[in-house]
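Appendix B. One record, verbatim.
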Amino acid sequence: MNPVTLLPFIVLIGAMFLMTRSAKKKQAAAAQMRNEMQPGTGVRTIGGMYATVKELHDDTVLLEIAPGVHAIYAKNAIGAVLDDAEYNRIVHGDGESGLDLDGTVVPDDASSLTEAGADEDTSDDSRIDLGKKAEKSDEAEPTDAESGKKSEGKDDGEADAK
């Protein structure tokens, strides 16, 4: 066999090996993180819920979601084990929040998108009337092109069946 024909297969096998190796490292790191959990540790589940570990079992964890509210989760459902400072900052709002409370206040309507005072200067006269138009008078009735007679309210395509 020619070595050039085997080269794509060798590259493919090497890429598969490297991908599975990195995935195994990530799985091992996640398992190590879950094994280091202790009661009282703050965690984030894979669903994004923050809770405190109360009890550890072989495959499950008892989490306190709120004071007096407990739930049993699989250990695999724990997405991250948080240190105490980070958990308290997220859940209780302790420490620097990073919010600029003295900054610009953004209104929750679109009034700031128009020029200042433009809404007060507009009147109802300049608005467009989107209602139905008044019916036309008898003088404006369309006439039949061939006979010159006024049509009797028939639409196009209606035959005169007399």
